[in-house]
Amino acid sequence: MSTNPAIEKAVAYLNTNAARFRDELFDLLRIPSISAQKEHGADVRKAAEWVKNRLITAGMKAEIVETAGWPAVLGEGEQKPGRPTILVYGHYDVQPEGELKLWHTGPFEPIVKDGMIVCRGAADDKGQALCAILAAEAWMKTAGSLPINIKFCLEGEEEVGSPNLAPLIKKYKDRLACDYVVIHDTAKFSPEVPAVTSATKGLIYKEVIITGPKKDLHSGTFGGAIANPANVLAKLIASFHDENGKVTIPGFYDRVKEMSAEEVAMMNGLPYSEADFLRELGSPKAWGEKGYSTLHRRWARPTLDVNGIFGGYMKEGSSTIIPSWAGAKISMRLVPDQKSEEIERMFEETVKARMPDTVTFEIKSHACCDPYLADVNSKGMKAARKAVGVGFGKEPVLMREGGSLPILPMLKRVLNADSLMMGYCLGTCNAHSPNEFFHVSDFEGGMRASAAFYGLLAEEK
Asked: What is the model's pTM?
């Protein structure tokens, strides 16, 4: 518990009203706000309206702002000069249901099962975003005001790639100006170990298509006479890693920033079990760049992976052909301080250099974003770590995320503000899968952590 009496009062208010707040979360979860499906347009707008009204109930000013796609909800408390300012980012849209027969109940019929709130959107991101709103209410009800300046931006298109978020942020740049962006869309390290995330990886996604003859050919008649695009593709893919698991693109590692000694020490002290990790994934053995642990590779080393291979005959039985073409989809996850545009150019140059003149090829681009690294010694990060400790009753660890959040570099670039990733759910919460869940205890811990953060950040000033 914090030694700040105001924080203790806000936390007590949240504990007292926990059952009511859970019921309110259920109300939001029942709205099937699937942004990927136009037939749910009315539901998306209904969820936006619910979020706007809940911000107002919490004592904030709020409005729905239109974009070229689904709307966003902008809100704020009283803004006073000289105080730290945060922008809480989240999203109220959700993924489609997935395979209905795999759900314990309807995907939009929330239930509590074994201490878990099971429903689409429970963890990603309705439950976690609601924690920040309810924490603001706790301060308004117990102290009459917030100790910091707080703003909200809750969008309705995160699950379709946030195509209109950057234009929105740029348009309302002055209104959304802040010292820190707070994001509750990451995870804890484990059920017992809370965490604050300090970094995410960047992403480059390419598609390479290799073409040989103008049509499929008989492999007996023409084998050994012309290059087989599938063989060329296989050789190219094999060339991307050496015997030590390192990526062989020249210059690939030149800008890689090593983890700090503090982060490495904390990582090495985590209750991580390689055997449990492999058992959960069903893999016989770990693999990757030599000289680094599995956690280190997942969090802070760049990678290259083939995501799909296609071309030639792939139906039942045999068809002895030389395929006319073959292709692969390849992604690279980048770490600080790699530059996505630089690595993208290096990849294309490498493919060109390794491609024989017996075939032609095309490279398509599907995604490109930079990695993100927060200042782990900033006042905001210190307050976030203390706050999560208050909320969950245990000091959190610093961890990194192997996935990519393209919005983070954009927010840093436009608002010049670091992001603080305070995630309250589990990484295994079935986000995007049937039976998505958010533990009741984590929902309540998240509310307490958010409330504590508001007070602790004010103290850091």
From this structure: 0.90
